[in-house]
Amino acid sequence: MRIVSWNIRAGGGGRVEGILGQLERWAPDIAGLCEFRATPPSTRLAAALCDLGYEHQLTTADAALPGRNALLIASRLPLRRHSLRAAPVEPGRWILATVGGERPFIMGLMHLPNMVTGRKLAFMESIASIANGWRRGPAVFLGDTNCGWPLLDEETRVFGRETAAWLDGLHSRGWRDAFRHQCPEDRVYTWYSPNGGNGFRLDQAFVNRPMLPRLQSVAYEWGQSGESVTRRDALSDHAALITDFAD
Question: In which region does residue 76 sit, left (phi positive, over 0), alpha (psi from -120 to 50) or beta (all else)?
Answer without folding.
Answer: alpha
